[in-house]
């Protein structure tokens, strides 16, 4: 099994990716997808403000391997 890559930095995510509505890697909408999984924490800072956020991956990107069991999430508004 290949190791799960680190999520992109929080500052490089779109609003939808940061909000959990889109895959953190391919930006595919997760609103109509069943089987999205937690991809970890996207880290970031803006001065003294911490921008860390949990991000999600679509089933296609999540199927590339993981180092932990995926936490399944249903489609729809997060």
Description:
The chain has helices at residues 15-19, 59-62; strands at residues 36-42, 45-46, 49-50, 53-57, 72-73. By secondary structure, the protein is of the alpha+beta class. The strands form two sheets. A three-stranded antiparallel sheet has the order 4-1-5. A two-stranded antiparallel sheet has the order 2-3. A hairpin with a 2-residue loop joins strand 2 and strand 3. The longest helix is centred in the first third of the chain and has 5 residues, at 15-19. It is globular and about 35 Å long. Mean pLDDT is 83; it is low at 66-70.
Structural class: alpha+beta
How many helical stretches? 2
Measure the end-to-end span: 29 Å
Give the overall average pLDDT: 83
Rg over alpha carbons: 12 Å
SSE string:
HEEEEHE
Instruction: Return residue spans where pLDDT drops below 50 for at least 5 consecutive residues.
Output: 66-70
Strand percent estimate: 15-25%
Lateral strand order in the biggest sheet: 4-1-5
Largest sheet: 3 strands, antiparallel
Total strands: the figure is 5
Percentage of residues in helical conformation: 10-25%
Shape: globular
Q: How is the secondary structure organized here?
A:
Layout: H1 15-19, E1 36-42, E2 45-46, E3 49-50, E4 53-57, H2 59-62, E5 72-73
Antiparallel strand pairs: 1-4, 1-5, 2-3
């Amino acid at each position: 099994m290949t190791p799960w890559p680190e999520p992109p930095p929080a500052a490089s995510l779109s609003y939808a990716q940061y909000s959990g509505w889109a895959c953190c890697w391919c930006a595919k909408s997760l609103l109509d997808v069943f089987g999205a999984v937690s991809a970890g924490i996207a880290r970031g800072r803006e001065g003294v403000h911490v921008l860390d956020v949990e991000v999600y991956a679509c089933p296609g990107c999540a199927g590339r391997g993981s180092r932990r069991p995926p936490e399944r999430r249903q489609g729809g508004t997060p």
